[in-house]
Amino acid sequence: MDGNFKMIAKTFFGFEPILAKELRDLGAMDVKEGNRMVSFVGDKGFMYKANLCLRTAIKILKPFAGFKVFSEEDLYNNIKKLNWDEVLDVNGSLAVDATLHSEVFTHSKYISLKTKDAIVDRYREQYGKRPNVDLKFPDLRVNIHIEKTWCNVSLDTSGDSLHKRGYRTATNIAPINEILAAGMILKSGWNGQCDFLDPMCGSGTIPIEAAMIACNIPANINRKEFGFERWKDWDEDLFEKIEASILKKVKDFHFEILGYDKAPSAVEKAKDNVKNANLSEFIKIERTDFFETVKRNDRHLHMVFNPPYGERLQVNISEFYRRIGDTLKQSYPGTEAWFITSDDEALKNVGLRPSRKVKMFNGGLESRFLKYEIYEGSKKRKKQF
Predict the structure, then answer these.
(1) Can you point out the beta strands (E) in the chain?
(2) Which of 101, 342, 377, 384 is least enclosed, having the fewest CB within 10 Å?
(3) CATH number, domain with residue 303
C-alpha cells in the first residue's frame, strides 16, 4: 500500500493563497504556501486527483532527493548515486528541466545536461546501455531546483504544463493562459450563482474556465496525458476510480455564461473551444461589440475580462478605456466587473473608482486585476434630472 508523501504544486506569483485553498478543499494534508508554490502531503491517488482537479497549478512535483552542491562535480556525483532504477527503466526515456537561484550555478541548460549525463552514465555502467533523451514525450521528466547551494531533485508528475487543458485548438490570437484565467475567476469570488459575461472573450478561455468552476468540472478532464501515466508504478485502475469519483461531484448550472467578441475569427475559435470542452449547453458565444450592448436583465451579473492590449489593440488606448468605463456605468447596473490590465495610464480614463486592486502577472507583464461595482439605480437617477 502506497503511503503519503510530500508534493510541490507550482503556480504564478500571487496565486499561492488560491492554490492553497484549492488543495485544502480537495483534501490535501499539511498545506504550506511558499513563493510561487504550495507544498502539501497526499498519497498516489491524491497525486492523480491534484493533477486532474487543480485549476491554478502549473505543475505537481514529487520530491525525489535533496543535497548540498558546491560545484558541478558535486551535482554530478550526487545525481549519479541516486537509485534511478526505482523510477526509470533502462529502455525508457527522460528529460531534465532546471531552475536556478544561485551565484555558483547560473546556466540552467548546462545543469540539465550535467544531470542527464550523471543519470545516463549510471545506467551505462550498470547495464552497458542507457535510457534515451526525449524532450517532448519522456517517460520521466526530472526537475532540478538549485537555491544557493541546496539542490532539490523532483519528478514531474504532470508532464506538460497543466495550463494545457486539452480543449483549445490552435489559435492565432494571443490567448490568456488558462491558469491565469482560472485564478482571476476564483479571485473574483465567482461561484456559479448568477449570470456571467466576458465582454471581450477572444478564444473563449475565461467563459470556459468559469463554466468549469460553476459546474465543478475538473480542470484537466480533457487532457490527453499526464506525466505519471508513463511511470513504472502507473496504476490505471486507481486513476479511473479517482476520475469516476470526481465526475460524480459535477453540479448543474442554472444561469447564463456569455462571451462577446467583435472579431469573427475569435468567435469561431471560441465556439470550437467551447465545443471541445463539452460545454456548449452552458456557454453562448456571440459576435458583438461590447460598447454597443446593454445588460440583458435585472439579475446580478458577474463580469471578468482581459481587455486586448498592444498588438491586439489598434486603437486609441485612453479612448478605449474611457469607453469601457462609460459602457459599464450607463449600460450595466447591478454588475460586479473585474478586468486585468498592465497599463496604469489607461486606467485613469475608466472614470470609475475600483473597489479592489490585486497585483498579478500576465505573461511576464506586471498587471492589476481590478474590481468595479456598478450599482443598481445610478442609471435611473440620471434620467430623472
Answers:
(1) 5-10, 29-33, 37-42, 59-68, 93-101, 132-133, 140-147, 150-156, 195-198, 257-261, 283-287, 301-305, 335-341, 356-362, 365-374
(2) 384
(3) 3.40.50.150
